[in-house]
Amino acid sequence: MKIHGLVPAGLPLLILLLDFCLVLCGGRDFYAILGLPRSATTHQIKKAYRRLAKELHPDKNTEDPEAVQKFQDLSAAYEALSDTEKRETYDRCGEDCLKKEGGFGSMDPFQSFFGDFGFGFGGQERNKEVLRGADIVMDLFVTLEELYSGNFVELTRNKPVSKPSSGTRKCNCRQEMVTRQLGPGRFQMTQQSVCDECPNIKFVNEEKILEVEIEPGMVDGQEHRFVAEGEPHIDGDPGDLRIRIKTMPHTKFERKGDDLYTNITISLQDALTGFSLNIPHLDGHAVHVSRDKITWPGARIRKKGEGMPNYDDNNLHGVLYITFDVEFPKKELSSEEKEGIKKILEQSSISKVYNGFRMSS
Ligand SMILES: *[C@@H]1O[C@H](CO)[C@@H](O)[C@H](O)[C@H]1NC(C)=O
Fold it and tell me: Is the Cβ–Cβ distance between 25 and 94 less than 8 Å?
């Protein structure tokens, strides 16, 4: 389809044609597979892919005879739409056209772009014989906000990449038995190291952008594995790069599992007469807190569903525990004020002898 000659008036027609293209041009509807509109952003595509990949992985759907096909469709959809160039081609003329232009379908559906998502899929057992470079483990410090809402983080990796170089080098060295005839009926067997000659290579640093998705509900120590992005090995495969999630301390919230804890200081007046307030949550939404009853220092309330999202099911949330501290007034009270307060509270002085701290509960 030639676009150059089109006048603006032809544009609606072109759009119409594009819409029909999927039907006319053949191939799968990758947007439908991902459940997204054609206007979806790259991040939406990645998010949808991530969610569906977890859901549809054949290891988790052993009952479904179409599980492998569904997963492959999903991977193809992701491959086509996550890459700007491929997406453009696909939008223009569909899957068949994408295949014709080459370079499509090269992705191993079981080896995702984002590493293995930390779900430890089976079927990736490595041949122990193959030499491998070391894994690199890197901590990625993330905020609680990012773990609550999710985020995409770009990492620039300076990676040594092997390039052909002049000359040869010894490679694939192994021990072999060599038999030498010393005379009639006499042989000597010796072990010696035998190597092949390989073209020489050198390592050149190349910059590479890696994208890590911080998924809602991830926990400390969870890893993203970037296959083959670790240390290279001259005679074998590179190791993996493992990005490990580390939560930075937060000033307002503490996390335990999927639950969150926060403290609120209220005035003595509010503690006695009740209050209504909003506290901003990690994504900025307001959590409404109100009480009519008296609130004592150390009192704790539970807000269901206001904790962290659960990693496996982002629709489930933990509990938010709010603990109250009461700030007493510092001003001096006159004798009349004191009498007034006594009259209101009608609380006899505690006359018990000291019996240790009374735990508020
Ligand atoms: C809340 O207060 C307790 C007691 O002082 C403290 O141990 C805890 O770290 C505080 N939590 C937050 C989130 O600041």
Answer: yes
